[in-house]
Design brief:
With 176 residues, this protein is mostly beta strands. Helices cover 3% and strands 39% of the residues. The termini are far apart.
């Protein structure tokens, strides 16, 4: 069964959080119950994340170490994540309808590694990921990247734009 109607590419058979619990992001805080970080880092098992807010302000990156998740940004008017980015570090993830804009505030993650979005397979093989209808921009380092042993990924209908070329990076003009 396809991840959703119209999905294309090698990740099309991802199931994400299908059949699991539904978690609602109810605030724009960096952490705590009802935050995006709570839904993605402090919960496990199949889950679908929906939104009652349209802005999320992060202080550090969110690392999704436990897959089997659907991040349904399209459930709000347009979810904008600012201050830091999202790193997918496990298999079977579907992410749709998100705007991720880390920005160049002096607060936040190390500017030399301040990316908007990554799929990073440091210790395992990551497979079955769909990243669809998102936009990524205003990162200080890379805007979006896929690293390591990653297979069966659909990266479709996304906008990857406007890296902050002359910003806080220690190497000077840098963003890609």
């Amino acid at each position: 069964m396809a991840a959703f109607p119209g999905v294309e590419g090698y990740g099309a058979s991802a199931t994400g959080g299908r059949g699991g619990k539904v978690l609602i992001v109810t605030n724009s805080n960096d952490s705590g119950t009802g935050s995006l970080r709570w839904a993605l880092e402090q919960n496990s098992g199949p889950r679908t994340v929906v939104f009652a807010v349209d802005t999320v302000k992060l202080k550090t990156n969110i690392d999704v170490w436990d897959g089997d998740v659907t991040i349904a940004g399209q459930t709000a008017r347009g979810v904008e994540v600012s201050g830091a980015g999202i790193n997918i570090r496990d298999s079977n993830v579907i992410m749709r309808g998100m705007m991720i804009r880390p920005g160049d505030s002096t607060a936040g993650p190390d500017p030399d590694n301040r990316d908007a979005f990554n799929i990073s397979a440091n210790f395992t093989v990551i497979k079955d990921v769909v990243v669809d209808h998102n936009s990524f921009s205003w990162a200080v380092d890379e805007v979006a990247g896929i690293w390591g042993a990653v297979t069966n990924v659909s990266f479709t209908n996304n906008i990857v734009a406007q890296g902050l070329n002359n910003s806080l990076h220690s190497k000077g003009a840098h963003s890609m």
